[in-house]
Amino acid sequence: MYSAFSSLIHSSYHRFSFFWDRILISQCWVRLFSKDEHPGLFALAFIHVLHEPLSQKLNGGLTGYHENRIYRLTYSIKCLNFSKLDNFMDGSQMKPEKVIDGKYVLIVDDEQDILDVLVELLDMCRLDTASSFSEAKKLLEENQYDIAVLDIMGVDGYELLKISNSRNIPALMLTAHALSSDNLKRSAEEGAAYYAPKDKINDIVSFLADVFESIDEGKSPWIRVFNRLGRFFDQRFHGTDWREEQKEFIDEIISRGY
User: Fold this and answer.
1) C-beta neighbour count of 84 within 10 angstroms
2) Which is nearest to 31 in space by CA: 15, 42, 20, 45?
3) Which residues pair with 147 in a beta bridge?
4) What homologous superfamily is domain 96-255 in, according to CATH?
5) What phi and psi values does residue 148 have, to the nearest 5 degrees?
C-alpha cells in the first residue's frame, strides 16, 4: 500500500509547478509515512483530491483549489475517522460562517469605508468598531472579545496588539499600507494570530474561521496564513526571496501551537 500511494504522491508532485502546491504535496507525502496516520484513509482522500473533475478544479483557479482541498485533507486525516472522510468527500465540513457565528469581534480601522465593509461582511458576529487608537484601547480594556481585527497604520496597530495579547485576545492584522514581509514577520513576532491584506478583505470570514479552528486544534494559525495566502505574498513581495531569507523564522512560527 505504501509503495503504491507514495508513487501516486510522487507523480502528483511533478504535476504542479507552483512552489506552494509542491509544499502542500510534500506535506501529504510526510503524512503518508507518519506512524500517527491511517494510510488507507489518507490514500482514499488523496485520490479524491487528485481525481475530481477538471471543471471543478478550474473553478476559482487550479492552484487555489488544490491548496484548499489538500489543506482540508491534512486536517481531516488527523481524526482517523471514516465519517470525517465522508464529510471531506461530500464537502459538508463546517462553513466559515458557522465557525464565527456569534463571535464577539472588535474591528479597528481609521477608514470608515473599511469599517463599513467589514461590518457588512461580518454580520453574523457581535461587533464593536473603533476608528482611533484611544477608542480601541478603551474597548479592548473593557471587553473580552473573541478576536480583534486590527489595522496597522493610522491606529497604532502594534500597540493595540500588545493590549490584545495582555488580554488573551487573538488579533488579526488587516493591512494595506503596511503590507510587507517585514510587517508580516513583525506581526508574528509580536504575537498576532494572523496577517492578511486588505486586498483580500472579502475573505475576512475565512480568515477569522482559520484562527478559531486553529486554536481549537491547538495549532498555529500561521499554518493557514501561509497555505491560504502564500502565493499572494510571493506576488506582492516580488518573488520568493523573502521566504528563503526568513525560512527558519517561518518554520518556527508554523511549528508552535497556539
Assistant:
1) 17
2) 42
3) 105
4) Response regulator (3.40.50.2300)
5) -120, 135
Domain spans of the chain, in order of start: 2-90, 96-255
Whole-number Å distance between alpha carbons of 154 and 131: 9
Pick from 123, 134, 128, 121: which is nearest to 104 by CA?
A: 128
CA-nearest of 19, 14, 17 to 234 is 19
Cross-strand partners of 175: 197
**Using a CB cutoff of 8 Å and minimum separation of 24, what contacts does 98-101 make?**
99/208, 99/209, 99/212, 99/213, 100/124, 100/125, 100/205, 100/208, 100/209, 100/212, 101/125
Each of the 258 residues of the chain gets a pLDDT tens digit; together they read 445 545 554 554 444 444 444 445 555 555 554 544 444 545 544 544 444 443 343 344 444 444 454 444 444 444 333 344 444 444 446 799 999 999 999 999 999 999 999 999 999 999 999 999 999 999 999 999 999 999 999 899 999 999 999 999 999 999 998 889 999 999 999 999 999 999 999 999 999 999 999 999 999 999 999 999 999 999 999 888 888 888 888 888 888 776
pTM of this prediction?
A: 0.66
Report residue 78 as a C-alpha cell. Answer: 488527523
- Give phi and psi for 132, each to the nearest 5: -145, 160
Provide Rg for the chain, Cα atoms: 19
Phi, psi of 106, deg, nearest 5 = -100, 130
Q: Helix, strand, or coil here: 135?
A: helix
List Cα–Cα distances, 167 to 134, 171, 194, in angstroms.
Answer: 16, 11, 17
Cα–chain center distance at 108? 20
